[in-house]
Amino acid sequence: MSKILLATEAVTESSPVRRLALVADALRRRGHDTIVAAGDLLAATALAEGNSLIALPVLAPARRPSVAAAGYSGLLIDSGFLDAPALHTLANGCDTLLAQIAPDAIVLDRAPVLSLASWGKPRLLIGEGAHLPPPGYDRLRSLGGDAAQSRAASMQELVMGAILRVQNRRFRPAPDCPADVFSASERLICTLAEFDPFVAERTDRNIGPLQAAPQPSDPWAARPEAPRIIAVVDGDYPHLTPLLAALAQRGLKGELYVAELPGPLKMMAEQAGVLVRFAAWPADDALQAAQIVVHHGEQMAVEHLLALGRPQLLLPRAAEQIVRGQILASRGIGALVTEAEHLRALDKIVARLAADRGVHERAYAWARTVQEEFNKQGAELAADAAERLALAG
To answer: pTM higher than 0.85, yes or no?
Structure first.
């Protein structure tokens, strides 16, 4: 059997390690030896149980991605690519890691440094469309106008200069543009087609979401007198105060899911009657009982709630989360809040969304149409691709 390395450098979203864990499970069932390398080892320990686990050093691990990132160069800047000395050190560290593990196949999901270090080598890339651009693209679709395009071009020049310096020092070939860091022997898109910004240009195979779909239910049919609003946010989210005020409105039943909460805000929530649960994500029975779910917009969370039939209000903290929110809003099944004036009116937006029967009916209808997209056995298809790569090597 083969030794397969599955790696992600993502530290602000758990979707990449969740996807890798599902593929690793499929590979282990076939008898392969799987090693999961993760920038967030704590998340990997919780989600990838049963695999060999190693920590993957990342650039600027504590930095929150910028919602202003206009393209892939911007995303690479958020990953620390402008720090050429640090990038050079980590790329060499990746070489050492690969030499020590000597995997028969490499599977990457949002691992830009390891993607650069292994550039030109056989590897499988999986993930969402927003992080796997077609060759030559640098602009993240639908984010801004001419100003964003100009900013993206400026970022591309800066990032390409850093990449060339690093690869020249390592005596390794360099990609033609920053987006081509994400080229591979095979790439598999693991998302609903509607959430791929490049679906019209896409030549990569889309194997659909890897997670199983929950059973959809009509949020309006079981609507209680006081609609239940669940919010799931980061403990360091800077707009918790207006969010708590929105959840505490008369006529609504608000719940806040958060890993940790400062004492003053916890006291504020208790005084306002908002139930605080210290958990990363609600169980499905809690989500089934909710009418609206507020969250940042992580991909697998968006898709899970879509399959469940729940309208969503996104409070994005990264560029690709804005794109997801734009798609939800354009379909009339959710809302997106990014501007300061909208954050100040968050209570009105939540109340309006909770009272909008059309939003609920459209979300439930959409849930019933996407069910088969979750039944493509995507994890098994990704495991097939990893096996092909291992055999070819």
So the answer is: yes
